[in-house]
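Quick illustration, no need to memorize.
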Amino acid sequence: MTSFGPVGFQLVLLRRMADFQPDLADEARRRLGASLADQREANKRWQAMVRSPRARGALARYRSVLGAPESVEHRTIGDLECEALRWPLPLWPDLRFEVLAAPDGAVWNEWLVRAPGVRGPVLESADDLLPWSATVDEVARAFAPVRPMEGTAPTRWRLAFTAQGRPCVAEFTYGLLQRVAAAGPEPDLSRTSAGPQASR
């Protein structure tokens, strides 16, 4: 891999998703025409960019790797002002990679969301929650109220909710659904926020 661009970035996302869905991630990697060695190299280069003492800010890094965003939208979340920048990724044509950035360029959130004007999946039961089928926002809306839970890594989210009387936990990587598992005790759903975009 001679340059790090959108293909390399998608390989980085797939490497994280492979922890949950190795078969789907492997198939997607092959669609990109990349080998496992290419993926390892892409991840190595991404980590080097993130950790370099001379690294630019996170927002500048995304611009350098993904190019100019497809759209930039001013957004107010509570009392906070930010910009939502979105980029298309070939692997997920119905989604966009969205970065929420503060006025000073600090990145608050980065994940996959449904592309504007694209209808999302019909989510009526836990059986509809197939891997890679839905985003955090879509699951939060379909099964409200939900309770956000701490993820097991910075790129992961979890939501606790009840579907057909059964407590469940949905797990996401970069905002894309990876799996749903039965939960233990009934979750406390008194808090209904699903993150910075839940009210969008």
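Confidence is low (pLDDT under 50) at residues 186-200.
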